[in-house]
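agent: user wants the full assembly modeled, not chains individually. Plan: 1) parse entity lines 2) check alphabet per entity 3) run joint structure prediction 4) return tokens. Steps 1-2 passed, two entities, 653 residues total. Proceeding.
--- entities ---
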Amino acid sequence: MSGPDQPQILVVIRASPLRERTAGLIESITLQKPAGLVRVLVLSRRRAVAGPEFRDEDVEEIEAETDFLGQVQRLARASGCRWLVLPSSFDRYLPGAFEAVVGCEAEPGRTIVGACQVMQDGRPVVVGPDPFRVDYFALLSGFNYIAPGATFIDIEQYLSEGGLDPRYPSAGVYEYLLRVGAAHGLDCCGSVLLETQAVPFPGIAPEWVASYGGEALSMILTYNRSFITPGSALGLGAVLADQLAPFRHKGFYDKRLVSLVGAGAGGFRQRYLDQLGIREPPAVVRPMVTSAASGAAAGPPLMGTAALPAALRIRLGIKALTPRVIWDLLRRVRRAWEAFGDPLL
Amino acid sequence: MSASPGQRPRAAGPATSAETSAPLLTIVLVGRNDDFGGDFNGRMFAAAEFNHRNLEEAGIPHEFVLVEWNPVPDKPYLATLLRQRFPWWHQLYVVDPRWHQQLSVNPKLVFMEFFAKNVAIRRARGRFVLTTNTDIWLSREVVRALPRLRDGVLYRAIRVDLKREVGYEGMTHEVLEDPESFLRTNVLSRGYYSNASGDFLLLDGGTYRTLRGFNEVFREAKIHKDANFCVHAVARGLPVDVIGQVYHLDHESSWNNVAHVYMADPARSHVGRADWNWEQDYENPDSWGLGSIPERPLDDQILFIGIP
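--- prediction returned ---
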């Protein structure tokens, strides 16, 4: 257990291969006040060619081990901190985040979760139920609105639980929420803690969503005895809609599948977020980040055509300029042509 | 095995079993000091240092061979720079630029990559020969697979392109394997296991030489010569195995980035026209890989392949 002058929160950051992302996250932490609440450990995956990768005196940089979860467990055990948090490189903590977590004065053994915000049409929106609370059944049905970076895990409880489940290297914190949430081990912090991305899973970097979505589905199948839940289905649908673009190798993806899920590009992601719950924040607060990495958390827009593939944007533009009757006629001609080439489509 | 000063010229020939000190693996790299794709030398040095270190740690006896084709006038040889930086580099060849003038039929093609690779294949000492490119990083899976290679099998690896911002400083397997590094995966094509095959074609040296290397009959383009070799190998009955991934930092002039430009205007292409029939088999002449051309020491470590 931590002493009075000891950092209360252990932040373990797995350094991104893209330095700017990690630098922005570190900056949003080290600018927090009061200083001394957190201890920041950066696990660097580069060989130290010329000194540390991140030259920040407020963080400790150590070499990452191959067994990430095992290393985190050892670090947590030795830290003397009360809570452990594992943010994504896209997360940017909002001012006062750590102070709010410590100020919750949670009972020993309880993990604290808070809300995150994402950018939508240039404005931050808060993700999750209003008022923010732990909705275990939303989590159980695959609608996870709690970002890993907004999950402050009680270290004693975490160690007694055996740590995160190595079967889910991308979605371990989500599984932990289900595990301790079932035993009512979660407390809520009233503040919005961080700004991040949601494509569509809040706090998961876009490059990780495919493995996260797959793991989340597998985990939800385990928790629900092989029943595909609405949240895991919609989340995975959003990932497929975003990532199954026409591939340059003809016939690589099933044409019908690409056609069906591609039609929902952008829409599935927005639908998933709507199901998680989206609301205006009580006050607009943005991360205190001064570096060029400040935009990393913003990510692609959740709505609007900018996130769509160029071909689809052009198509939507032409559609907007074309009279409805002519547009429908063109669609029928195209369908007839496709049916001629592939009767099963 | 580099020539020492005063060594007598020798002609290339297949490695023999009598060469008891022959390494398990020869890694064939080709290039010139032309900054192709931007920071060519920096990318090459970083990848070579990484691959050499990992092969050493895995206990894989290996040699690196560089063939410098059509060297750039008024610039130091790439071979010289490599020798200065990596004293362990095993074989360095510079091919007389007059060979390029003699063999090239396309003035836009300043670097005949697969002719250069053939020069190395004919001179490789390793039991197995990996023809690859200078900016390719070998994965753990590939290094792990090397001790169990079999003769008469063509081995391929899937090339994963990494974002440029990842950079190469302090590179580790963990950085290479992180999804945040990935830009695209060049999936294997059905039939011939081609697509980015120029970055990883691994075969025992004897079979490589029996097949007579890459196509030297068609000389208008270098693009798709790698896939053409896959066709050649499959046509001669070789099975193909996939043994993992290799990684490649995205850069200017990479085919993935310029294909749309050059397909629309083949006359501008630095790799030649892409629409030739690469699915057609070929038969190289006996002289392939400048095999009968004697070498002479250029300095204490570099061999020069001149015109007799």
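agent: reporting back. Residues 238 and 267 of chain A are 8 Å apart (CA to CA). The longest strand of chain A covers residues 186-196.
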